[in-house]
Amino acid sequence: MATNQEFVVCDEAVSALDVSIQVQIITILKDMQEEMGLTYLFISHDFSIVRFISDDVAVMYFGQIV
């Protein structure tokens, strides 16, 4: 975040992590979002994480938003 980004793409950012570490990373991301006014494009297959971090959600199926 050294370059003062406003938009960050998080593609499966926590998918390979232990659940307790996932919570820590997501909490850090949410704190950074509030403090720095960040917007995330958060890509994940885990709906519970998406629900926790997202304000708006789009679901893709075979490359189309459904």
TrEMBL record:
Protein's UniProt keywords contain Nucleotide-binding: yes
GO MF annotation: an example: ATP binding
Keyword Transport belongs to the record: yes
Record InterPro entries: ABC_transp_ATP-bind (IPR050319), P-loop_NTPase (IPR027417)
SUPFAM superfamilies: P-loop containing nucleoside triphosphate hydrolases
Keywords for the protein's UniProt record, in alphabetical order: ATP-binding, Nucleotide-binding, Transport
Homology family: Belongs to the ABC transporter superfamily.
Identification of the protein by name: ABC transporter ATP-binding protein
Organism in which the protein naturally occurs: Fusicatenibacter faecihominis
Lineage of producing organism: Bacteria, Bacillati, Bacillota, Clostridia, Lachnospirales
